[in-house]
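Saturday, quiet lab. Running sequence design on the structure tokens for the scaffold JK sent over.
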């Protein structure tokens, strides 16, 4: 239904843009979120911002209310919030709204006359790339494989105002006939460029996986085992020693497949030490900065030698880092590496004869972008599996994690339900409020860093949980009284708050701070609009001020993607919505040594979630896999195959009627149940 709605919506916007253009308006396509929308050109940017500023003000005030009271404001309270924002006029009718719009436009010198003069205005500059180029880029922005419906939707979105809907769909058909888009078995598709990229990665993998005199030797391995045992206080297990031998063998590519909590960090540390004992330089990398920093903490042999994958490629290209025959690169959380990055790192390793050790788990969270090549690498290189879980000592918890990983969530949820760790509330807001209150109670006996508050929904929910968590900490007397305002967020920051970076932070003459790095605020100065942060792990102090504050957010609650690879004492998990998946549930469950609690909303589980089947419906959501598959996993169809691409207007109007009808039936059923 979602895919059909996107396609019909794209057709509608394309037809609307065509009609507006026929009236003489210039159209700017590829605007808005993900470039799906269009705008009438030449409307002043300040006016567009002004139209949305009012709703932003009230939304931020409403979020501040939520942080203080733990619930959304009701109607009367929302009216009071609007009054506090100096707008006393309630827009109750279309006429009220029209007059408010006209007044706002007049403030910016844009009235009816200026609107008329938009007709016949010069066309905006054409996008640098042809429509077909933009369509191709958008098709595989998220995944390597798509279907014909996505092809049609993207073609309509990227050509709005330039082509009629029928012309846009003809472009999509031509892309298939020209083999720029390749039909695959099972109604799937990919692009020629993605297919070629995957073949290139796989070809390199086969080459560097051949024996190439990279064996470290038994003496270097045994010394590494002793060094690690002295650090952690116990010897490597038989399974871990077998993995160590595979990773330090003669091949230039080796793969470690490690489910959550199986002691990958210990094996990585031992492998890095064995390589170093043999006189080699070892560099640790990951897609995210926070994962790269965690890699250095969990595997001390790599401390001071970790960076993001992008940073390594960039520095190698500039010559500031040398990757040569004596270099070993350790790539952690490789299941989250997209095609572009996997292409870059395998090319980097292939040229100078270096070695690549790849660590990951294809059953955990996928790449943000076309991915899935980690499992393909494991088909061609020595692959060492780990199975024994060390993170938790609870046998029942281990079985629950294993069940989630196998795609059997009903077994896992039965365990959590029997132990009183499934908590149901009527709504998502109420589930979040109960979760954050229980998180705060755990702080009586735990450091905030050791209690993960995890959600799998939007950044809006993450911000909401963070603001509420901050308020509860302040009530407990754990934070300073002064507050530093943040741009574009409804909360501020206080002394002793935990924060994370949402972008790279650069300090002249010092190593950059990676996106995702975390720290604690040690001082704030609202008059100077600045604060000081001590980074976790390194104890490095940073001074952040002015525009730099836009790249800082509270870090009590984290999206599940930010938590992959983390280990904590306890986990508080808010889940059960449309984003819930098999991979996400497994990652959420397997963060904590001493138990996880799940917070769920009945209204997201159907039939108001009051019946006994609500746990079964939750399990059904947790069976939904969002793992990425590369196009190479599907057979390419011959040139003679021509899939249907261009439905006519009647076909799409019929689809729109089905969507509207389905929603009407759902609403009617809800009315009857009430």
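Result came back. Writing it out in full:
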């Amino acid at each position: 239904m979602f895919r059909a709605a996107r396609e019909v919506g794209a057709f509608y916007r394309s037809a609307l843009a065509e009609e507006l253009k026929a009236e003489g308006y210039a159209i700017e396509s590829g605007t808005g979120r993900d470039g799906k929308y269009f705008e009438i050109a030449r409307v002043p940017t300040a006016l567009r911002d002004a139209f949305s500023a009012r709703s932003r003000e009230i939304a931020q005030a409403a979020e501040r209310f939520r942080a203080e009271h733990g619930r959304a404001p009701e109607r009367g309270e929302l009216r009071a919030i609007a009054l506090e924002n100096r707008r006393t006029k309630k827009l109750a009718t279309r006429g009220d709204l029209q007059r408010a719009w006209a007044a706002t436009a007049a403030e910016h010198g844009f009235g009816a006359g200026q609107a008329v003069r938009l007709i016949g205005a010069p066309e905006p500059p054409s996008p640098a790339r042809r429509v077909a180029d933009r369509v191709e880029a958008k098709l595989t922005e998220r995944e390597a494989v798509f279907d014909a419906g996505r092809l049609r939707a993207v073609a309509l979105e990227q050509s709005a105002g330039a082509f009629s809907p029928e012309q846009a769909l003809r472009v999509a058909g031509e892309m298939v006939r020209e083999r720029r888009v390749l039909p695959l078995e099972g109604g799937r598709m990919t692009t020629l460029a993605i297919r070629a990229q995957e073949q290139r990665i796989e070809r390199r993998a086969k080459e560097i996986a051949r024996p190439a005199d990279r064996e470290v030797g038994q003496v270097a391995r045994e010394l590494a085992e002793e060094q690690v045992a002295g650090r952690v206080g116990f010897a490597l297990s038989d399974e871990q020693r077998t993995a160590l031998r595979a990773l330090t063998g003669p091949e230039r590519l080796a793969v470690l497949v490690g489910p959550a909590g199986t002691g990958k960090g210990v094996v990585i540390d031992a492998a890095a030490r064995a390589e170093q004992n043999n006189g080699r330089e070892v560099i640790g990398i990951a897609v995210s900065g926070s994962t790269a920093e965690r890699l250095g903490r969990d595997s001390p042999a790599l401390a001071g030698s970790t960076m993001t994958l992008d940073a390594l490629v960039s520095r190698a290209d500039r010559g500031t880092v040398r990757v040569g025959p004596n270099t070993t690169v350790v790539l952690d959380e490789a299941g989250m590496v997209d095609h572009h990055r996997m292409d870059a790192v395998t090319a980097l390793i292939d040229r100078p004869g270096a070695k690549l050790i790849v660590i990951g788990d294809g059953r955990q969270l996928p790449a943000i972008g076309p991915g899935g090549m980690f499992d393909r690498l494991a088909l061609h290189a020595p692959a060492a599996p780990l199975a024994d879980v060390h993170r938790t000592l609870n046998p029942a918890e281990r079985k629950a994690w294993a069940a989630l990983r196998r795609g059997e969530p009903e077994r896992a949820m039965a365990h959590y339900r029997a132990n009183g760790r499934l908590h149901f509330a009527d709504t998502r807001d109420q589930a979040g409020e109960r979760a954050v209150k229980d998180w705060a109670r755990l702080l009586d006996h735990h450091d905030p860093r050791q209690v993960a508050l995890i959600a799998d929904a939007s950044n809006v929910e993450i911000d909401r949980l963070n603001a509420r968590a901050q308020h509860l900490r302040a009530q407990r007397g754990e934070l300073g009284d002064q507050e530093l305002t943040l741009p574009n967020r409804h909360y501020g920051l206080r002394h002793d708050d935990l924060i994370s970076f949402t972008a790279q932070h650069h300090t002249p003459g010092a190593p950059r701070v990676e996106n995702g790095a975390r720290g604690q605020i040690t001082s704030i100065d609202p008059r100077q609009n600045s604060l000081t942060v001590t980074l976790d792990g390194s104890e490095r102090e940073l001074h952040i001020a002015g525009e730099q504050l836009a790249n800082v957010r509270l870090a009590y609650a984290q999206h599940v993607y930010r938590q992959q690879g983390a280990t904590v004492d306890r986990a508080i998990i808010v889940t059960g919505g449309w984003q819930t998946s098999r991979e996400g549930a497994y990652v959420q469950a397997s963060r904590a040594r001493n138990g996880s609690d799940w917070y769920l909303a009945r209204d997201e589980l159907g039939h108001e979630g009051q019946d006994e089947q609500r746990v079964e419906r939750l399990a059904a959501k947790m069976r939904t896999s969002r793992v990425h598959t590369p196009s190479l996993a599907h057979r390419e169809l011959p040139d003679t195959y021509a899939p249907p691409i261009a439905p006519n207007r009647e076909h799409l109007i019929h689809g729109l009627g089905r969507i509207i009808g389905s929603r009407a039936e759902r609403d009617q059923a809800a009315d009857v149940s009430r």
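Notes for JK: The first helix runs from residue 2 to 22. Residues 662-674 have pLDDT under 50 and may be disordered. Ask whether to fix the surface positions before the next round.
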